[in-house]
Automatic annotation (TrEMBL):
Keywords: Methyltransferase, Transferase. Residues 94-178 form the Methyltransferase domain. Residues 10-52 form the 23S rRNA (guanine(745)-N(1))-methyltransferase N-terminal domain. This is Methyltransferase domain-containing protein. One of its GO terms (biological process) is methylation. InterPro entries: Methyltransf_25 (IPR041698), RlmA_N (IPR048647), rRNA_m1G-MeTrfase_A_prd (IPR016718), SAM-dependent_MTases_sf (IPR029063). GO terms for molecular function: methyltransferase activity. It holds the Pfam family Zn_ribbon_RlmA. SUPFAM superfamilies: S-adenosyl-L-methionine-dependent methyltransferases.
Amino acid sequence: MSFQAHEALCCPLDGLTLDLQSGVLACPQGHSFDVARQGYVNLLLAQEKRSRDPGDSKAMITARRNFLNAGYYAQLAAELARVAAAAGSGLSTVVDAGCGEGYYDAHLLEAVPDLADNFVGFDISKWAVQAAAPRVPATWLVASNRQIPLRDASADMLLSLFGFPELAEFGRVLKSGGLLLIAEAGTEHLLELRRLIYPQLTAKADDAKDSYAAAGFQLQQESRVTYTTAELPQERIAELLLMTPHLYRASAEGKARVAALQRLVVTIDVRFRLYSSAPFAV
Ligand SMILES: [Zn+2]
């Protein structure tokens, strides 16, 4: 697999420019990072890891890949491409901060090929990046949202899809007036699954918007995609549970109820919000 080295890549140890030299990313101070055979580079420093194998496990990534490839979230991929395409011509460097196994990126770059030249995708899970890198040529990295290995003011657009936004770091990496596209589960998302696994559903407080404004992001537009899926067979139900955070919070009884299902229709409810970083934010 070939690795595309984006020109804004910087060394996680000292912030100097990383260049691709005979299959290795190296900085002028002599730090070097190998290109893995799947076509990505691991720039996650040991001290940034909060566990030995951070992020989604191999089993979660496999489940997500199988589920997403079955097409149940295709309307979400289409909405992402629509918003990104409408956001503009002139988008050069687009960065997916938390790319998972690359489903959304592969669809986005197929729908909007102009974005493919300078696309960067990273995830803290090496299993996710190993799955994403072979899907589409781009700069694929194992890295953390807490320390994005890109120069200040180098990205035209950041994507944070069902991820963990680090707004201060996003603000650093985005160009002045750059765009941040967030996708988040809405209140009805996977309601049928959640009803089965939690004794009581608690409504989630929507305090997100204040934190974006405080971090210097201005809301440009919002959209919401809601629909119900076709019937999921047992295998897909198990994958859906494994790929969401709900598995870890579910009681044993809840998991047993889900495991006993033969068929399930679920509601999809996802909100997309497009922000711009304030033109003169520090
Ligand atoms: Zn270095």
